[in-house]
Amino acid sequence: MEPLFNLKVVEMGQLIAGPFAAKTLADFGADVIKIEPPKVGDALRKWRLLKDGTSIWWQVQSRNKRSLSLDLKQAEAQDIVRTLLKEADVLIENFRPGTLEGWGLDPEKLLELNPKLIVLRISGYGQTGPYRDKPGFGVVAEAMGGLRHLTAEPGRVPVRVGISIGDTLASLHGVIGILLALQERHQSGKGQIIDIALYEAVFNCMESLLPEYSAFGEVRQAAGSALPGIAPTNAYLCSDGGYVLIAGNGDSIFKRLMTVIGREDLSSDPELENNDGRVKRVAELDQAIGEWAKLLNTDKVLAALDSVAVPAGRIYTVVDIANDPHYRARENIQSIKMADGSTLDVPGVIPKLSRTPGSIKTLAPQIGENTDEILKSIGLSESQVASLKERGVAFTK
User: Is the pLDDT of residue 397 over 90?
Assistant: First the structure.
C-alpha cells in the first residue's frame, strides 16, 4: 500500500507549479482528480515537443491522475467542484489571486463546507502584499528571489537555469506544506490554507545571501562555475574539450586533490589547511588544478580523482543521463508503454521509500477522459451527465 493511499486530491492548477505538486502526491498513491477546461485542457498539453499532438512533458506531469473537464465559469460546474471538495482532503490551485473567489470558491467558504480540507495556493507573489495582483511566472520569481542575478559569468547577462526551477521549488514547498498540514490535522481534525509564492520558494533556497548583506554589506555577485567563498570548487577544461566539475573544498579532500595533481607544496601549506585560507588564494588554486586538468582527457581526469576519493563529475547531457548505468540501477529512468504501443522513457518516482514506495500506475489522461466516471461517482445519473456535456458544462474528448 502506498503512503498516500485513500488521500483525495482535487487539482485545479495549470502548467507547472500546482500540477507538479499534485503529481508528486499521485506518485505515492493519492487519488488526484485534475480539473481542466473543455476542449483545450491544460496549456501544458501543447508545451515543448509534441507526439501525436500532445506534449511528451504531459506524460510526466499528469501521470497517475484522472481528468475531469469542466467549464468553471458556469454555476453548475462550480457546484460540482463543491460536491467533490466536500469529500476531498486537499485542493491544489495555482491561479492568480482572486480567481477562485471569482468562481465563488473562496477557500474560507470551502473550509466551512469541509472543515478538514487543506488548500494549497501557489501564486507568483502570494495571496497578500502589495504585489499580490501582479501576474507572476517562475522566470520572474527566479529573478526576484535572487537566483537570476547569480546565474551568469561575471560581467555577462544573467541567464536562465534552463528549467522552470522557480515553479518546481514552489511545488516542493507546497508538498511539504500539505504534509505538515496533514500531520497537524491528525491532532486538531482541522484543515487550513497554505500560501506559497513562487519568488519566496526561490528566496528560501538562497543560503547565506541575506545575512551576508545584513552583517557585512556584501552583495554576492555572479561567479560563473565557481562557488564563491568555498574553495576550490569549479569546472576545469580537459584536453579533449570536456569540462570536469571538481569539488576539492573539504580540508582532507583538498590535501588529496593537491597530491594527485602533483602539488604537494600546496597540500602541505599551513595557510591552505582551512577554507578561509584557501578562499584568499582561490585564483592560484584554480590555476594549479586547471593546468593539470588540461593535460589529460576527461576520462583520465575523473579516473585519477576517483582513485583518491575527490568528488568530481562530467557535465551530463540527456544522452549521458539516458545511457548511465547508475541512473538505470536506481530506477531513475523508467519505460512506460504509450497508448499506441510505443515505449517512452520518463523520470522515475522520487523520493525512494523502502517499505511503501511510489509508482507509475497510469498514463497521463486525455482531456476529460474520466469525466463520466467522476460525475457518476458523486451521484449524477447517466442522463444528467449527458445533459451537462450537451450544454458545455462538462466535456469528454
Answer: no
